Amino acid sequence: MSAQDNLASTVQTSQIESRELLLEQSLAGSVSLQVLAQAQGYLSSNPAECDGLPQYAGSISTSGESSGEDSGIAYTANATASESPASSLESPRGDNLTIVAPFAGDVPGALNLQEVLSVKEVGGGGSVSLERSETHTLNLPIKVDFASSLCTSTLGSLAAALSRSPCNATLEQDAFDAVLPALHEDAAALGFTLAAGWGSGGSSCSATYWVTLVEPGVAGATGSFDWTVRGSGTTA
Amino acid sequence: MQFIDIAVASGYAAVCLSLIVLMNPVAPREAAVGAGALSALDSAISSYIEHVGLPFLATSSEAAICSSAAEASNSTLAFDVVVQGEGCGSSVAPSSPLASSSLTIDLPSRTVVIEAWLVRQ
């Protein structure tokens, strides 16, 4: 083989390698986006319960995969993700999967996912292969911490207001109406809309109350969506 | 700006490699130079998608995407992005490019094809 042949072979191998790197980058991003899209779909179609927020986040499990052939390179990519292990982050923690920014990395108070990512590629008739297996963190910017604190404060306020005048529906309604504006303001300050109501609890003069918090227009990885949290209680 | 630098450098490198072809058209070297040009184009596509991010390509309007492609293009390198079969317009594609490369990305909501050409001066 001449020096020119060697040069050509080396450059063509290099071209396959650069194509594999480009594919790896786009595959890692696209399967991660699939993971985020699934999580987003779950969040938008499944309201969370105030008293089950930790379990709610823990129940999210998503996956993404892609396989095919490009420029003579056979590839497979897959990713699975679930809630990121609890951490006491006080500031965002980055991740090098910047192609899906700003959804790469941990964000305090948001839904953080730990993703296990795998990409395999074989090109050049089997002579140039690439294999990548990594763990990343992804996030969706719903305000889990704010929802939790709003649930606690809102349900507490409703319980206190409705407990002051048991067995008197008129006074209970007055108390409910009096507390509601402040609850709306508190929710709005944290980026939520609030709907609340109450009714007779039936026997023994108890009252039931409920609240629905909606975080509208969350900027997700595949578009904006609304996230809903619901809670309820009963006065003694 | 780093993105622009990389794109310009990639385009310049590809032009230089192409000039070598014209000056000494020996077959193995032609192949090598062609491969080099493709590498440069792939590198430019990589820089583009890293710069704009996949969420942008997944959610933005065609106008915004086409604007980003135009911004990434220069005198030696041209980009087009085809979203669900609709490109930015025939005026983007050079009539007789020195080399071309494309990348298809299947996103959750749409398929995007990024095309790059090395423009003949």
> How much beta of chain B, percentage-wise?
15-25%
What is the count of β-strands of chain A? 8
- Arithmetic mean of pLDDT of chain B: 80
> What is the element string of chain A, with H for helices and E for strands?
HEHEEEEHHEEE
**Runs of chain B with pLDDT <50, length 5+?**
none
Q: Could you report the average pLDDT of chain A, rounded to the nearest whole number? A: 92
Specify the helix fraction band of chain B: 40-55%
**Number of individual domains of chain B:** 1
Helix/strand-derived category of chain B reads alpha+beta
Class from helix and strand fractions of chain A:
alpha+beta
Q: How many whole angstroms does the radius of gyration of chain B measure? A: 15 Å
SSE run of chain B: HHHHEEE
Number of domains of chain A: 2
Please report the two chains with the greatest interface, counting residues with C-beta closer than 8 angstroms to the partner's C-beta. A-B, 33 and 28 residues
Keywords for this entry:
heterodimer, A: 236 residues, alpha+beta, four-stranded antiparallel β-sheet, B: alpha+beta, three-stranded antiparallel β-sheet, 3 strands, globular
